[in-house]
Amino acid sequence: MPKPRTPLEANESYHDRVAHRYDDVYSNSRWDRFYEISWAGIKPYIPSDLRAPIVDLGCGTGKYGLRLAKSGYSVVLSDLSRGMLEVSRQKAAAMGVEARVTFLKADVMDLGELPRSHFALAIAQGDPLSFAEQPSKALKEIAKILRSGGVLVASLDQTLAAIDHYVEKSDLDGLEKLLKSGEMEWLAHADDERFPVHTFTPEKLRALFENAGFEVLDMYGKTVLPFKKLEPLFENEESAERIMALEKKLCRIPSAMGRASHLQIAARKKE
User: Fold this and answer.
1) DSSP-assigned letter for residue 188
2) Which one, 11, 30, 42, 134, has least CB within 10 Å?
3) How far apart are CA 92 and CA 61, in angstroms?
């Protein structure tokens, strides 16, 4: 009987399997607007100096890191999945930016191959901190590679958005576990590709970052409005703009963040 996969192995296996179709799965008008909201939270912290080093952690297929490389920055793309890194490498070559990009296979909880106190900006979109076995350890690893005053912009799963999932299944045990620990499971079809996902309320996320030596600069819900249910409306440009205007009004209201599927946070490493 084969040995069960560890959570890390399950995470890696899942992302290796989906890597070559990942961009197709997450590519339509609704997702374009989601990425627009994510980018808007990154943009204020992009260094003005093109020589400032940047790292994209849990880079996936390189959506954000390659965009920065195209603008002239030197970027390290790091991911647990070789499959994701291979797709990123192919895209970098097609964009003509491979000379400015370094690729690294690494777990976000072990960034020992990266230089200490070096990066001006770290990006962690796609929830790699939520997927880490120990998010607090991962965050402390990121703090080690950031220079003093360096900024991390990360996206994580939001706890209260998962309540309906357990209610609809009448899963009281799962609901109690979610609300006690913030932990749920990545719902891959194959049991051996399921792994724990750590979710956070806004209050717990702020505490996590502050305990790791960060000053929180910004936090917002992503998205407060249920973009998936509104998906047909995104095909119409006027309707999409109206939804985006409403989302921008709601996303930083503390009481509204509990409706969001994700939280995006920007935080500076303290001096």
Assistant:
1) -
2) 134
3) 10
- Tokens for 176? 């109690």
β-pairing, 183-185 vs 196-200, is antiparallel
Q: For 217-257, what is each residue's pLDDT tens digit? A: 999 999 999 999 999 999 999 999 999 999 999 999 999 99
Is the pLDDT confidence value at 28 over 70? yes
- Residues 6 or more apart whose CB falls under 8 angstroms from that of 79 comprise 15, 57, 58, 59, 60, 85, 88, 105, 106
Mean pLDDT of the 62-83 span: 97
168: amino acid identity, one letter: E
* Residue among 81, 74, 61 nearest 15 (CA): 81
Q: Are 104 and 77 in contact (CB under 8 A)?
A: yes
Q: How far apart are CA 239 and CA 163, in angstroms?
A: 29
